[in-house]
Amino acid sequence: MLSLGAHVSPLLSSPPYAPLLLYSVSRPPSRSPAAPAAAASAPRSLCFLRRSRSRSRFAAGRTRRPTMAEAISLEAGGDLYHDLGSAAVTAGVALALLKFFEELAKRGVFEQKLSRKLVHISVGLVFLLFWPLFSSGTYAPFLAALAPGINIIRMFLLGTGLMKNEAMVKSMSRTGDYRELLKGPLYYATTITFATSVFWRTSPIAIALVCNLCAGDGIADVVGRRLGTEKLPYNPNKSYAGSIAMALAGFLASVGYMHYFHTFGFIEETWYMALGFLAVSIAATLVESHPISSELDDNLTVPLTSFLVGILLF
């Protein structure tokens, strides 16, 4: 260290290097012509960057995509309008079908009992065909139930005499008495409303309820009156032909709608479900053939049996 300092100090103090040392110390560092502009522009560029970022955030706020909650709200609103339209179409078709059978009753195309059973068979089964029109929204089953729900009100008004419609009474009652609408037809509409709003299209119980009530019970009466010569030993008002027809019709209709809803992805089509439908149809047939169904009403006992057995199996 001492020897190095001894060699360096003479060099710095010698005359040839003194001007260089003084020049290097006294002269300010050189700047390029662009340096002042860069130095002056540096603060402005930071401010501009801050302003540009704030503007970009403001623009993003104006053009941002909707949040998940907003997207769900928009989708729910779209489903609601869609389901309202589907409910209007379904109710319109159901009312048009009733009007059609009213006109047939007025013109006497079919006898009264056959006309009543045709209404019984067709209205509920046609109604099931429109279930896939509705969305998977929360309000869909309740909006779908508006059509049979409106029919509940109509049956009540007609059955109490508050509203008059002789053609409808004739097409839906056994004897033409308007008070009959407070029994079978009211139970019928209530069952379909219950199956729609509570179980809906993802449940085999809904299929079993509607198909055994509409197809099973309806076909039993039509076949029993024409081919039912041999009566059941425990009920002379019921026949073997009618009971067999009821079990087959209810089962086949249930399996058909199982396949129909499976094509839309609502339920899984399995052999277990098919066998369950067979068990429900047989149980509903046995109860319908019992004298208690005549005393109460088969429009009450058949869906009640289908519901109880369906709860156990499905």
Automatic annotation (TrEMBL):
Keywords: Chloroplast, Kinase, Membrane, Plastid, Transferase, Transit peptide, Transmembrane, Transmembrane helix. GO terms for molecular function: kinase activity. It is a multi-pass membrane protein. InterPro entries: Phytol/farnesol_kinase. It comes from the Eukaryota. GO terms for cellular component: chloroplast membrane. The chain crosses the membrane at residues 80-98, 118-134, 140-163, 206-228, 240-258, 270-287. It is found in: Plastid, Chloroplast membrane. Belongs to the polyprenol kinase family. PANTHER family: FARNESOL KINASE, CHLOROPLASTIC, PHYTOL KINASE 1, CHLOROPLASTIC. This is Phytol kinase 2, chloroplastic. It comes from Urochloa decumbens.
